[in-house]
Amino acid sequence: MNLIKPCLFQLSFWLRLAALFSLLLLGGCADNWGWYVVSPATETGRQNLAFLIDGLYYTMALSVTAISISICLGLIVALPGLSARRTPKTINRVFVELVRAIPILVLILWVYYGLPQVAGISISVFWAGVLALAISDSAFQAEIFRAGIQSIDRGQYEAAQSISLNYRNTMRYVILPQAIKRILPALGNQLVYMLKMSSLVSVIGMQELTRRANELVVTEYRPLEIYTILVLEYLVVILIVSAGVRWLERRLDTS
User: Fold this and answer.
1) What is the rounded (10 degree) CA torsion for 112, 115, 120, 122?
2) Do residues 172 and 33 lie in contact, with contact meaning Cβ atoms separated by under 8 Å?
């Protein structure tokens, strides 16, 4: 409940603004818009809306799973970049630069169509999307973690050494808790970015929001109305996530 209330408060202004914009737009274009395809007043409209909204589960599952894996992988990749030795730093730099150079759409297609042939494994559409998004985002997460850890004052390391903490416990109990507070806004931005990039997984058949909107356009032939609903769906989801991240930032600041 504590998370829902601030999220709803943050959303109220934007939803009112979106509603006002929609009314002005629809009032001037009433003759050209076929809102019956997504109108809750008709049986067909309710079915189409339900079909679109059902895709939200796959979008959220895909995004949350991918961001969770990318955060773990990004932290693992970031740690060698903090080493004083040249070899770990080189491994970190090569991984980050190579992954960041590959477009996400290309990586999704390669993982889904190419990885089974290279590795001889069968991979579902969902896990192909998760793997591609997680690998792509892990390079950005690695840089975020590296910058956050390096921003911690050197005295924190010395204080941890003075009480005989090893490197693992120093990172776990001293450095990472402070670094996560500092990089939380960047992590929130990456989650929003992941939600938007999840739409690209529609090209391999993932039944998320964008794929379902595309299928509905093919059957109803009303792209303007259907894609408008799609825009509003993404808008509401991303505003809720952004409000949740800001609430968490405030909680961590007060703690």
Assistant:
1) -20
2) no
Tally the C-alpha atoms within 13 A of residue 94's C-alpha that lie toward its C-beta. 6
CATH number of 4-254: 1.10.3720.10
The pTM assigned to this predicted structure is 0.82
What residue type is 107 in one-letter code?
Answer: L
- Token pair listed for 60: 């959220």
Rounded Cα distance, 5 and 129, in Å: 32
pLDDT per residue over 64-91, tens digit each? 999 999 999 999 999 888 888 888 899 9
Each domain of the chain, given as residue ranges in start order, spans 4-254
Taking residue 36's Cβ as centre, other Cβ atoms within 10 Å add up to 14
Distance, CA of 110 to CA of 99 (rounded, Å): 13
Residue 68, pLDDT score: 94
Look at the block and give the residue holding tokens 């002005």.
24
Give the model's pLDDT for residue 24.
46
